[in-house]
Amino acid sequence: MDECGTTGAGASGVRDPGAVRRAHEAFTSGSALSRPTVRELVAASWRRSARARVSPDGAACVELADDDLVAYREGHPLAAAMPVVRELMGAYARDGEHLLAVCDASGRMLWVEGHPGTLRKAGGMNFVAGARWSESAAGTNAPGTAIAVDRPVQVCAAEHFRRRVQAWTCAAAPVHDPHTGRLLGAVDITGGDGLAHPHSLGFVQAVARAVEAHLALRTPAVPADRPRLTALGRDEALLRIGGRGVRLSRRHSEILVVLAHRPEGVTGDELLVQLYEDESVTPVTLRAELSRLRGLLGPEVLRSRPYRLASAVDADFAAVDRRLASGSVAAALGAYAGPLLPGSRAPGVVRLRERLADRLRAALVDRADPALLADWTYSAWGEDDVELWRALAAVVPAAQRAPVLARLRALDAELSAGATVLQRPGPDTRR
Prior knowledge:
By secondary structure, this protein is an alpha+beta fold. It has three domains: 17-218, Beta-Lactamase (2-Layer Sandwich), CATH 3.30.450.40; 234-314, Winged helix-like DNA-binding domain superfamily/Winged helix DNA-binding domain (Arc Repressor Mutant, subunit A); 317-420, no CATH class. 47% of the residues lie in helices and 12% in strands. The strands form three sheets. A five-stranded antiparallel β-sheet has the order 2-1-5-4-3, sandwiched between helices. A four-stranded mixed β-sheet has the order 8-7-6-11. Strand 9 (302-303) and strand 10 (308-309) form a beta hairpin.
């Protein structure tokens, strides 16, 4: 765990609050960071915030309100766990003049509840339900950074990237689907200096584990005899089969993705073409890989002539495809954890990856929903997607348009600079 509360710390919980504040001012003015002064967790987050062009003087954007907010959060998996969150955190938040908050995996606040006076103060910085507090949109903060690094974190006072948040301290822990491991969101406790203690971090982590246990009891697990392949947003796929999880190598991940996509099976020659850019790779190399994979999974899982899986696989990328086909764009985006095996250069995987991303992007443009477009553009894989940023700029409310247009200008400048470099003539090598 990463906490800012330390024995002998000042009122804010940071070893030297003044030094951290000076480091923040220096960094946001363009100077380098001083590592002994700022925790590495915070330093890395500040760098990501700067790369995302978060303004240290900006405010979080409210993306959902009224009926749209109610409908969205009622359909979210974490809605089922809110009674548990309120039971464990509600009285503590009210009595301590704190706030409890729950956000989705994109950093959008779903619920913000607690002491009435603290709620009014938090409203001044848009720490409200429906506002996006992801790190890439709001800078360093506990719920946004917990989602970014996928572990519990605590952020105190001047460690926040935005100045108007630096009067606050918060601790947050991510929550995952207990059956698939997919990130669902985070639980957070936010308030004043009294939260600048390691116990606050342990508290939210315990609440997150209680939420996951509650969800595990409410929702049935995927049957043990139905293999499940998770390959979105990761270079090494995870196969859950027979009650166990198997982390696959990159090549084995590519093989499983191709076979899951082609349940009818493929010949050895077809598999060679799907997996290898180098045409000189021989069937012997492929058979050796398949032999190793069969030894890992068992002969009853992988069959040959043609190469195929013995039973249908519940693949995460196929689930996104099915939801798009049914017109459930929001559900498809919610299930999209990132590009399919993003580091793979296997031709068959590249085609599947690009096809799925293009279908999802086209559906988002067609739907023209500001919240859904923001989910894509503020993600790690969509932050440089000029077309989707332009689509967002066309539909986002006027009050939220300024940061979107700023990001578009920055992307256009980067593209222009890149084009200039490409067009610049090389050295004259004529003699």
